[in-house]
Amino acid sequence: MLKAAWKSLLGRKLRLLMSTFAIVLGVAFVAGSMIFTDTLARSFDAIFASSVGDVVVRPVGGSSDDGTPTTKTLPASLVQDLASVDGAARADGNVTSFGVFVVGKDGKVIGGQGAPGIGLNWNDAPAAHGLEGLEITAGHEPTGPKQVVLDESTAEQAGYLIGDTVQLVTSGKQPVLRPTLVGTASFGDGASTNGATITIFDTATAQKLFVDGKDVYNDAWVTADGISQAELRDNVAARLPAGFEAVTGDKAADESASDLVQAISFISTFLLIFAGISLVVGSFLIVNTFSILVAQRSRELALLRALGASRRQVTRSVLFEAVVLGFVGATIGLGLGVLLAMGIRTLFATFGLDLSGQSLVFAPRTVLAAYVVGVLVTVAAAYVPARRSARIAPVAALRDDVAMPESSLRRRLLFGAVLIVAGAGAMLAGLYADVPRPGWWVGGGILAVLLGVAAAAPVISRPVVASGAVLYRRVYGTVGNLAGQNALRNPRRTAATASALMIGLALVTTMSILGSSAKASVDQTVKENFFADLVVSNVVGVPFSTTIADRIAKTDGVAVVSRLRYANASFDGGGQGLMGIEPKTLERVADVGMVSGSVEDLRDGTVMVSESRAADDDLAIGDTVTLKLPSGKERLEVTGIYDSNSPLLFLPFTTTLKTLENADFAPADNYLLVGLKDNVDAFAVQRAIEEQTADLPTVTVKDQAGFAEEQRAPIDQLLTIIYALLGLALVIAVLGIVNTLALSVIERTREVGLLRAIGLSRAQLRRMIRLEAVVIAVLGAVLGVGMGIVFGVALMSSLRDDGLEVLVVPGWQLLLYVVAAGLVGVLAAVLPARRAARLDVLQAIATE
């Protein structure tokens, strides 16, 4: 039986290899996402290990809950004192700012888009465990206020050479700097900056720029001299006054790395979701392939049964072929996964996360996952056809025509209906009920509905296919009638082939509705709530210098400038967003959307709360909330409650700018809302403000239309990535149509020969097969678009309370999907139709 299975496999290797494409893509997604995330984790481990000393001393509350530095510092006298601690070789103070960006010679900002722009003071302290920290690789260290050192990668990207004047943008009181580049630096031990830019000043200059010229530091490193980090930490802690803490370098590195890797763990989840979609879609292709191949081998399998092979042996022989197919697909997919990981690395480099300096990490668990996924999915998909093959009676080998036993369509319809009802219930529970991890309920419900429709598709699809058959008969006559009858002949096969395309288009349709609705909701929100004439923001998504607002306020034609700032606090042990506003100016440029109370009631030391936060914690005006801020725990009185869907106050808590500054948050603005005087030329004022910020390429000035476009841009970017990934699932579906038609032509070789013998021309034969492909593709499109509309509308209704109030069903776009599916059917039929037309008539008739 093993030898027979090998011969069968080798005899049909081309057909089977077409089926491996689905497994290859699915495994490639799994392997590629695991390789990339492992590489990401190791890269950050390396950089953070080189960014801490043996012991790190820092002020308690020296950074907010989201890691943003605050104005809390430690005095230089304390650093000097730490150098004399038992077991300490030296102590070095560090001044750090996360708002320093390099502008290249072409006027473009280097980095950003998530990767920080870091400003540091120079010191030659070793990192933890004696690792090399930053070291000068060319030139020399900075020694005055007009000198600067850049990391090698940033200098290269910006086009700067030693001796050039460098343009820098900061979030401090001096928004623009133009020092001379005197050297380049890099981390030792091969650590990469991962897209971050590093700008190094001498200590006095860094203190002047980032800590108001005071002789203080943001933190300090204490280097061990022959003792462990834990022992040194204990010795240092004994010397520290209240308000400061000492942690080992290992702990500090782990905190930084784990927080960041957890923050970007969505990348792995995102890719694995699409791996699952590819594998589910691919399963239909594998089921179809094995069903057709088993049907073609029915006489062969019957002979094996007649010769004494048991049902179990026949089943095992087919499953053996599936194991080999899965192994081959997993092997190719693993190799493609490496290329995919390289592609992902290149893609994220365009968003500022540059891992080009880190080699890919190929862990054993990646190999294991690839083969487990590839083989298990293939075997699971082939199991039903394998079981069906074992049900062939041995006596069937004596007949000319062997019919494969088929399960009842009524049973499939019932099973599909159960899955649809269960899936719909899970979706409703995830969307509207208070259940843990609602996203899993919705995702599982959608998958159940898709599989349920696929199971019931042989019955559900009959009216669509029958309508197509009637249309074909009227338009194309006998050829059209043959095409329609062929599609109706085996409803299981037609439905399975269409189901692969159905799943892909259902998800594409859902995302089209969500994307169109989200963009329309953004436009409506901006139109209804923004009274500001202009909006000023930072293109790299970080705060900018407060002096920019001062400049703009002095511009002719400007009536008011209102500042918005974002921070983070801790409420009931969890991180909470906190905003800072200027109450008197904000109401002049925007409609906040107060539910109760007034913006004017907000004063220093008080807070306003979003409606959803107030409802969750039973808060009302006059109550107090306790927030953990860098300055410590603060009790703030609630003076107002605002709409949770406010486009401006979208965080749970809002207070005044002065309250944020008193809590030791660094003063820097995130947005400026600019109101103009009456009867002024708005375009001329905007040009004047742009001239005021011309030396700050990180800062943009936009009118309402430009701001709405900026808010839509991330939606378009996300949709583009999703469409590209879903496109691979659609490619699998198209290959499924090609594979099914090709195998169907082989299966119907004698029939094709007879049709040619009685007068069907080659052109008519090709047309017949094309029409079959079109009806399969359109069936998948109709079912997919129909379900996608249901999913999209359901999801939008659940997101109405989150600000997505406008429902848009892009009708023309969805119609285009159906038309495109028909064209895809025509293209998918090219090779099978050509093969059928080239068959020798006499040999075809003689085929068994």
From TrEMBL:
<feature type="transmembrane region" description="Helical">
    <location>
        <begin position="439"/>
        <end position="460"/>
    </location>
</feature>
<dbReference type="InterPro" id="IPR003838">
    <property type="entry name" value="ABC3_permease_C"/>
</dbReference>
<keyword id="KW-0812">Transmembrane</keyword>
<dbReference type="GO" id="GO:0005886">
    <property type="term" value="C:plasma membrane"/>
</dbReference>
<comment type="similarity">
    <text>Belongs to the ABC-4 integral membrane protein family.</text>
</comment>
<keyword id="KW-1133">Transmembrane helix</keyword>
<dbReference type="Pfam" id="PF02687">
    <property type="entry name" value="FtsX"/>
</dbReference>
<feature type="transmembrane region" description="Helical">
    <location>
        <begin position="721"/>
        <end position="746"/>
    </location>
</feature>
<dbReference type="InterPro" id="IPR050250">
    <property type="entry name" value="Macrolide_Exporter_MacB"/>
</dbReference>
<feature type="transmembrane region" description="Helical">
    <location>
        <begin position="495"/>
        <end position="515"/>
    </location>
</feature>
<protein>
    <submittedName>
        <fullName>ABC transporter permease</fullName>
    </submittedName>
</protein>
<feature type="transmembrane region" description="Helical">
    <location>
        <begin position="318"/>
        <end position="342"/>
    </location>
</feature>
<feature type="transmembrane region" description="Helical">
    <location>
        <begin position="362"/>
        <end position="384"/>
    </location>
</feature>
<keyword id="KW-0472">Membrane</keyword>
<feature type="domain" description="MacB-like periplasmic core">
    <location>
        <begin position="494"/>
        <end position="691"/>
    </location>
</feature>
<feature type="domain" description="ABC3 transporter permease C-terminal">
    <location>
        <begin position="273"/>
        <end position="394"/>
    </location>
</feature>
<feature type="transmembrane region" description="Helical">
    <location>
        <begin position="771"/>
        <end position="794"/>
    </location>
</feature>
<dbReference type="Pfam" id="PF12704">
    <property type="entry name" value="MacB_PCD"/>
</dbReference>
<feature type="transmembrane region" description="Helical">
    <location>
        <begin position="413"/>
        <end position="433"/>
    </location>
</feature>
<feature type="domain" description="MacB-like periplasmic core">
    <location>
        <begin position="17"/>
        <end position="237"/>
    </location>
</feature>
<dbReference type="InterPro" id="IPR025857">
    <property type="entry name" value="MacB_PCD"/>
</dbReference>
<feature type="transmembrane region" description="Helical">
    <location>
        <begin position="814"/>
        <end position="833"/>
    </location>
</feature>
<feature type="transmembrane region" description="Helical">
    <location>
        <begin position="16"/>
        <end position="36"/>
    </location>
</feature>
<keyword id="KW-1003">Cell membrane</keyword>
<feature type="transmembrane region" description="Helical">
    <location>
        <begin position="270"/>
        <end position="295"/>
    </location>
</feature>
<dbReference type="GO" id="GO:0022857">
    <property type="term" value="F:transmembrane transporter activity"/>
</dbReference>
<feature type="domain" description="ABC3 transporter permease C-terminal">
    <location>
        <begin position="725"/>
        <end position="840"/>
    </location>
</feature>
